[in-house]
Design brief:
Number of strands: 26
Strand order of the largest sheet: 7-6-5-4-8-10-9
Radius of gyration: 25 Å
Largest sheet: 7 strands, antiparallel
Strand content: 15-25%
Structural class: alpha+beta
Shape: globular
Number of helices: 18
Helix content: 25-40%
Amino acid sequence: MIFHLLSLFLLFSLVVFSSAQNWSVDLNRKQQTIQDQSNSSATSISPPQESPQPGTRLQIHLPGEPAHLNPISSNDIYAKMILSLIHDTLLVPQVDGTFEPSLCSSYEVEDLVILKRQGTTQYLSDKLFGHMTPSEGGFTLKPRSQKNPTPRETFIPEEEIFRRVRNAVFTFYLKEGFFWHDGTPFQAKDIKFSYQRLKQAQVDSDALRYSYDALKYCEVITPNQIRFIFEQENILALPLLAQFPIVPQHLYFDPQKTEEDQAKVFNQSTPENKNFIGLGPYRIQNWIPGDRIELIRNPQYPIRTQSGYLETISIRFLSDPEKVEDAFQSGQLDFLFHLDPEQILLKNFSPTTVQGTYVLDGFQGIGWNLSHLAFQDRRVRQAMAHFFSREAFIEKYLYHYAQHQSSPGFTPETAVSLSVPHDPQKAQELLGMAGWRDRDQDGVLDFHGRRFEFEMLYPEGNLLAQQLSHYYADILKPYGILLHPKPLLWVRFNTRLQLREFDSFFIDFSLPIDPYSMWHSKTAEVKGLNYVGFSRENADTLIQEIKQEWDLQTRLLKIRQFENLLSEEQPYLFLWVAPHHFVYPNHFQGVSFSASFPGWRLQNWFFSKQNPK
């Protein structure tokens, strides 16, 4: 999946736990900055003026069709969008950084104490947990969760403690009344099974597995009670568990098959993965390959406030921008949510439509394959950034609807604005230092007998990527660099990224919850989010320090250091953060937008009798 992408909450120190996305983010401020810069603002969506009633149909489109919908093994942004409708999670993140219980009714968070040895009569286990407070000569542990092996308030001498881990033990109490879409009751054993498959090496879960490295235990306490234990401090522990991927054990577990054979079911477009049986407010009614997915409202969904009002949601797979616009104008689509500025500013949409913008966390940029002869040299990557004029492109193609930056932008406070400015002369100097010269006088730079020539992949139908790749190619050609734009169907594009079969690619990236999965050296050689193969020891150190730092100001300082490191290394040509433009007919109400991926909740939409078609 391409996350992801743009995902988003407040700083950890402002709430009980850390932000659900990217260590700390306040995207409302980021969105306002972009809007102020472009002298425009997003449309304010007024609250509904009438009581919503279930019924009617909504038609949307996705530019690409996912291979399957298994939440553990799929690394596809469009799969995530569909799963947000048909599936559910333990907790739902809120815009203020807190979490609302969904599959669970409540949860307890406790500290962990790992003892140096086990077997004394005083302690029943070498791992004790509860609320930890300092006491003279040690710590007092007071249990909070049900069925806690620490039966009462216990004093533990300092000399008996091997390790203390704050906020490490999470006990979730599951709601009754949740059923998989085939009618099977949802239980804690489904979560335990999902944990086991997530950790299984043969399962293609690299995009998620490494974020859960410190999660060492998942224990079924009762059919409706599950416990997770982290053995290292991690400020992202709760956000990671909130979105923990869950699959139905009864459909995926086969005692007659080996572990390896069962893993194959997860990794392929099997019936279980294509027609995924979820827990959410909508379920799959029909999937017509190459055409659409039809979703129907799940009448058994137990949370009335999140059960949705739309009776059916039709999701068409359309990548051609002109066909998408024609379908909207003719009433075959009701919601366009990722228009480029040119599409919405230069088109005459009906006055009965609502138009505006919203911002998701992430960046748009060009990824470099760091094993490529040219791009393995940091000086070449820096040169490629110096050749590109962000300001000129933003003015010509984005109509000032973007804010340039030279780093991922984990927080507004730490984003690097423009450390690599437009400077073709500097770019040529860097290329010369890296050994790229036109030795055979054919107009193309060469090094070790190879010409500086590369492909840039981008998803077919992405108008902005098409404009950017050709614009960049025209810039580079006079300097002896040949760029060949290469549009691909979405599934093929995503597969090429996973297999690292590319020279470069354009991406609209949603930053993952945990930066470990995108930037740590352990993820450089696996199928995950570290598409470019980034691997730096100092980056690994900073990632670990940030995840374990509880002091806000110290954490921001380390994030800033990490942003500066990425800006210097330029594993991506970080371009800008830009708002998404949307349009929909005004006969829908209950519409709102947020910084949380995917930016909207179709469950809240309903047909307005006040503004009929």
